[in-house]
Amino acid sequence: MVAKAQTESDVAGMRAAGKAAASVLDMIEEHVRPGVTTEQLNQLCHDFIVTTLGCIPAPLNYRSSPHTPPFPKSICTSVNHVICHGIPTDKKSLKSGDIINIDVTVIKNGFHGDTSKMFFAGDPSVLASRLVRVTQECLYRGIESVRAGAFLGDIGNAIETHATRNRFSVVQEFCGHGIGRIFHDAPQILHYGRAGTGMRLEEGMTFTIEPMINAGSRHLRILPDGWTVVTKDHKLSAQWEHTILVTGRGAEVLTARDEESFG
């Protein structure tokens, strides 16, 4: 089985969850600055999700497998060379020039909305700025390839082609995923691959596209906390994510923010 909105009610539920998740990223932007800790960002997001939105932060106490510890925070904060699943902490403040991915998933009336965005704390380096921009473009290229009748491989190929043309590398060990009433569902959405291969996309499918792009090699390691994923060469990494609904005309971006425009 794959994640699929079976009814108009399901679609409405996914739209509402996606809109709620997007609003968290809109809210937190003004707070991302040098001197703030990732734990402070986590607390702001947690309070907004629970109190203002009346939603549940899906990452809090989430287990990816019986062998991993529960994730201890409400959002993921991945700074500089952290690829994904960074755990918020009060031990270190953001510095000017840092880049940070804030990954938010909310549960609203049983449906999940999952999205992430890159932020700058102060003025980024030329390399950091280019990496963040190209990674967002990779996400958009992937979204543009989505339509009923297309293939999963079309998404990965679009992302990988754009990343490698810009001399960046694509993380292969982590991928997008089906989403709906279940946080992580089938299918897996690889961010690399060959066009015209893999599962055919069907109208009503709901999944995330969330490319992780490295400035250096694609290789990674997982820290002893069981969650934090970093680049093996300690070079920068960036990620952007949206939750997508496959429609007869293409893709509906359920977590689109006001600053974005999709045809």
Describe the structure in your own words.
- With 263 residues, the protein is an alpha+beta fold.
- The chain contains four helices and 15 strands.
- The protein has a single domain, classed as Creatinase/methionine aminopeptidase superfamily (Creatine Amidinohydrolase, Alpha-Beta Complex).
- Strands 1, 2, 4 and 5 form a four-stranded antiparallel beta sheet that branches.
- Helix 1 (8-28) packs across helix 2 and helix 3 (126-144) packs antiparallel against helix 4.
- The chain starts with 7 loop residues before the first helix and ends in a 10-residue tail after the last strand.
- The relative contact order is 0.19.
- The mean pLDDT is 97.
CATH superfamily descriptor: Creatinase/methionine aminopeptidase superfamily
Euclidean distance between termini CA atoms? 29 Å
Query: Could you state the order of secondary-structure elements as H and E?
Result: HHEEEEEHHEEEEEEEEEE
The percentage of residues in β strands lies in 15-25%
Number of extended strands:
15
